[in-house]
Every structure is written in C-alpha cells, then in structure tokens.
Design brief:
The chain has a single domain, classed as Purple Acid Phosphatase, chain A, domain 2 (4-Layer Sandwich), CATH 3.60.21. It has 10 helices and 12 strands. The protein has a 6-stranded mixed beta sheet, with helices on one face. Helix 2 crosses helix 7. It is globular, with a radius of gyration of 18 Å. The two termini are about 25 Å apart.
Length: about 260
C-alpha cells in the first residue's frame, strides 16, 4: 500500500519513526512476514529512532498462539524498540489463569480452543473437564515465561499526535482518564464517533476488509487469522504508510500501561 501525508503537520516527533501492527491472532506465518517487511521498509528510509508497537490480540483464533508468544517474547530487533499493548484476548486468558473459570467456556468458543491446542492441550478434553481440572491443565501447559510476558503489556502508547490502543477510547473522556475496559473492549461508541479525541487513535480489535482510516482514528485489524492479511502502519512526521502481508501467505488456516514512544 502507498504512503500519504496526514492532514496534520508533524504528527510524529522529529527524528522518530513508529510502526504499529494489527491483531495477529495466532498467525506466526503472517507475523514473520510483516516483521520482515517492516525491517526492509525501515532499512530503506533515513536513520531514525524506531519503535514497533503491537496492538494486542497476539493469541487465540489462529493455530499458533504459543508460537507467536514465543517468537515475540524474545524479539529484539537491532533497529527498533518494541512495545506491546494488552488486547481483550490476552486479558481473558490472564483472568482465567488467575482463577476466573466462569469465563472458560466463552474463551473456548471465541478462539481459546485454538490457543489451548497450540500449547499441546486437547480442547475437547479441556471442555469436558471440571473447571478446577481445566485450570490445572492450562497452568501446567502454558509456560510462566509466557504469562510474565503477557502480564507486562501496557494499555496505551503515545507517539506525538498519535495514541495507540487495542480497541479504542471512550468519547468525551480525557485520554488520561480512560478505563482499561474501554481501551481493550470498546466498539460502537468509539467507532461511530467522529469528534477529535485530541490525538489520532491507532487501534485494532474491530475487523474491516481494508484499513479503516478516518480523520480521528486508524483501524488496523484486517482479520489476519482468516483473511491472511496482517496490516501495519508506518508513521513519521506528517507521513503515514501501510504494509500488509502478501499473496504468498494468504491461504486461510483450517477453522477448528502506558508507554511513551517519544522517549525511545
């Protein structure tokens, strides 16, 4: 996808560049592809202090949640700092592992079965188990290193005139007072709102066939787990451009806290 100038001058801090990646949802193949595209794109531009922001929902739905987490917890590119944001799917898994088994069946229906399978568990066996037994199986199968990684995710990250979040913001509420629940889960009140939020909000969470670019927000969730299209945006000064996974990876799988980027 091509580059374009935004309608606000110097949105990004001088000398800095940021890339944001939409919902990965267990697609390791697409993750590897987009990371390679970002590395190549960054190398082709003038030197800058670069940050890569992952907008959350690394896990569930796709076939390789465990492998995506393993890949990213050790991802240390020489050219960029990394920032990870909490998605609603990470939140749910962490709540379950903390003992909230009441939401276990919902998690299994909305992508948790694929996540469990990626950790070597049989989803049918897990669903047939008593909640306490299912919890023990999950805790035994998911490495503590993975949980520590997911638990450390932030809720927002700022970059000049941009704000990165997973789902969106509550209109009319100051950005500094947004609730984590909204940042990770909100849809209609945010998606339908056309007012200026003070920053352009870059988000995932809600699937659209193409990048959902509006004057006050940019939606990057292009349904990677089923569409084969994982999207990233590059931001520098008053310019923005988009990168997407290519046709060679478009085969669909079988169904089955605040970080300030300008200080990087």
């Amino acid at each position: 996808m091509g580059s374009r100038n935004s309608n606000r001058a110097s949105l990004g801090p001088t000398g800095h560049r940021a890339y944001a990646i939409g919902d990965i949802h267990g697609r390791l193949d697409l993750l590897d592809s987009i990371l390679a595209k970002i590395a190549a794109d960054n190398a082709g531009r003038k030197p800058a202090r670069t940050t890569i922001v992952f907008l959350g929902d690394l896990i569930d739905r796709g076939p390789q949640s465990a492998q995506v987490v393993e890949r990213l917890l050790s991802y240390r590119p020489a050219f960029a700092k990394t920032v990870f944001l909490m998605g609603n799917h990470e939140e749910v898994l962490l709540r379950i592992l903390a003992g909230d088994t009441d939401i276990l069946s919902d998690w299994m229906r909305f992508g948790g079965a694929e996540c469990a399978r990626s950790y070597g568990l049989d989803p049918v066996n897990l669903e047939c188990s008593e909640p306490s037994s299912a919890l023990r199986l999950l805790r035994r199968s998911i490495p503590q290193e993975h949980l520590n990684f997911l638990s450390g995710f932030a809720d927002t990250a700022s970059f000049g005139g941009y704000l990165f979040v997973h789902a969106g913001v509550r209109p009319g509420i100051p950005l500094a007072k947004q609730a984590a629940q909204d940042l990770r889960w909100i849809r209609a009140p945010f998606l339908d709102d056309e007012t200026d939020h003070g920053r352009i909000v870059v988000h995932g969470h809600t699937i659209s066939e193409e990048v959902d670019e509006r004057p006050n927000r940019i939606g990057l969730d292009t349904g990677a787990y089923w569409s084969g299209v994982l999207t990233a945006v590059g931001l520098e000064g008053n310019e923005r451009w988009f990168l997407q996974t290519g046709d060679e990876l478009d085969a669909k799988p079988e169904p089955a806290r605040v970080a300030n980027l300008s200080e990087a």
